Amino acid sequence: MRWACILLPQLALDGVLHRCVDPDGPWVLVAGSSQRRTLHAINPAARALGLRRGMALAAAQALARNFAIAEYDPEDETRWHRFLAGWAYRFSSQVSLQFAHALVLEIRGSLGLFGPWPRFEAQLREELTALGFHHRIVAAPNPLAARVLANVHDGLAVGEGEPAWRALGQLPIQRAGFAPDVATAFARMGLRTLQQVWGLPRDGLVRRFPVEVLRHLDELRGKREPAWHGYRPPDHFDLRIELGYEVESSQALLFPLKRLVADFAVFLSGRDGGVQRFALHLEHDGHARTMVPVGLLAPERDAALLFEFARGRLEQVQLPAPVRAITLRADDLPPFVPVHRELFDARAQQEMPWEQLRERLRARLGEKAVCGLQAHADHRPEHGSLSTPAIPAKCEPSFGIAPGLRPGWLLPRPVLLRGPAPCLLVGPERIESGWWDGGDVRRDYYIARLSTGQCAWVFRPVGGGDFMLHGWFA
C-alpha cells in the first residue's frame, strides 16, 4: 500500500455549492445545447424532489419548481480540481491530476508524519468534508489500482500481493478503467470480471485489442510503471466568486470574502507558504474595478487573521457601484516562518500575540496610524529617532538607571521645570550638536527626582540657567 486515490464524484457541483449561502437546498447543474438542456449533476435535496441526472431541464421544471440552477462550466471544474490538488500537496509531495475527478497521492512517506493509514485517512475525510467536497478514498499498491478500485469501493485499503490482485480481480469489466468500446467487447465475449480478462492469452489480446489494453493490465498489476504527471503548486493565487445578485454594501461582501480567504489559507498551507501582500478586486457593471490592497508586515497564513485584515480594508472602501464579482489575487507568496514559541508558553489564554495585535491595529486604524521607531544618528534627543512603517516585532526593555539612558516618554518639546529644585541623580551628560543645520544645542542633561517623586530627564543650558523638563522615566 503506497498510493491513495481520492475520487471526487460530483466535483463540479460541489465547487458551485462551495460558494453558496445555502448549499443544502436543491441545486442542479445544467449542460447541453440551448435546444436540449439536461441535468448534468444534482445534489441530494434535488434528488429528493424526483430529479435525476440526465433528465431534460424542461421535464425537471415540469416536475418541480423550487430548485436552483447553475451552469456547468468545465473550466471552473478544472480550477477546483487544481485547488484540491494544492490542498493535497500539504500531505504528500507526489500528487497527480492525471485522472479526471480524482487525486492520486503517494502516502508511504506521509505515514510517518501523519500516523498510520486509518488516522491519516480520517484526517483527509475530515478536511474534505469541511471544504464541502464529496469523496471516496481507497489505498492500493500503485496509483492505477487505487484509481480503479475507487470506482467500486470506499474506505478499502489493500497491501501488495494477493490481497490487491484478489480485490482487482473482482472488479466488473465496466468499472475496471477500460475504454467504453473495449469494455463492451469484453462483455460480448462473456467476460464479467477483471480476473477473467487476466486469464486470457496475451497473444490473443494483442491481436484483437489495441496495445493500450495490455499496458493497462500490466499497470494494474504493477508490472509496468505508469506515466506520472506530478502536480506543483503555482507561485500565485487567483480565485474569483461571481455573485448572483448586486451587492451595494461592503458588509454584504463579508460572506464571499470569508470563503475566498478560507480557500486562500488552504492553498497557502498546502504549499507551506505565507502571504504578505494580496489584493481584492471588486467588479462592477459600467465601472472600472475597485482594487482593495491588503498589506502585512510579516507573512501570515491563518484564515481568521487574513479575513480580519481584509475585512478592515474592505470596510474603509466607498463602493462606486454595486459589486457583481469579487476576486482575491496574490502574486507575492514568501516563505512562512512560524512565530517562535517556548515549550511551556506561559501566555494567558486571553492575550493576543504582538504580531496579531500589530496587524489588527493597522487593519482597523489604517497603515499610517501605527508605526515604529527607528534610531537616527543624531545626538539631539528630539532628532534621535524617526517613525517608520516597519514595526519591530520585539522590544527589549532596559532596567535600572545608567549614564546615557533615555526616557521612555520624550516630550515633543522641552518645557520649563517649575517648583522646587530637583534632586540630581545622574549627570551631567553634555550634548552639543546641530551647528550644521541651524539647530545648535548646548545642554547638560541629568536624571533627576522631582519633589513629586517622579523620575525625570532634565537639562539646563551650558553655563547655567533654569532647568527644562524633556522626558519621563517609568
Can you walk through the features of this model?
With 474 residues, this protein is α+β, with helices and mostly antiparallel strands. Among the domains are: 3-25 and 67-156, Alpha-Beta Plaits (2-Layer Sandwich); 237-332, DNA polymerase, Y-family, little finger domain (Dna Ligase, domain 1, 2-Layer Sandwich), CATH 3.30.1490.100; 409-472. Helices cover 30% and strands 26% of the residues. It has helices spanning 11-17, 44-48, 57-63, 74-88, 108-114, 117-131, 143-149, 162-169, 180-188, 194-198, 202-208, 211-220, 254-270, 303-314, 354-365, and strands spanning 3-7, 27-31, 38-42, 68-71, 95-96, 102-106, 136-140, 237-247, 275-284, 290-300, 323-332, 372-375, 385-388, 409-416, 423-433, 441-449, 455-461, 468-472. The strands form five sheets. It has a five-stranded antiparallel β-sheet with strand order 14-18-17-16-15, with no helix packed on it. A hairpin with a 5-residue loop joins strand 16 (441-449) and strand 17 (455-461). Helix 4 (74-88) packs across helix 13 (254-270). The longest helix is centred in the middle third of the chain and has 17 residues, at 254-270. The protein is elongated. Residues 392-403 have low confidence and may be disordered.
* C-alpha Rg (nearest Å): 34 Å
**What would you call the structural class?**
alpha+beta
Kindly state the number of beta strands.
18
What is the molecular shape?
A: elongated
Strand order, biggest sheet? 14-18-17-16-15
Query: How much strand content do the residues show?
Result: 25-35%
Major sheet attributes:
5 strands, antiparallel
- Tally of alpha and pi helices: 15
Named at the architecture level, the CATH assignment of the domain at 3-25 and 67-156 is 2-Layer Sandwich
CATH topology of the domain at 3-25 and 67-156: Alpha-Beta Plaits
Arithmetic mean of pLDDT: 85
Q: Bin the helical content.
A: 25-40%
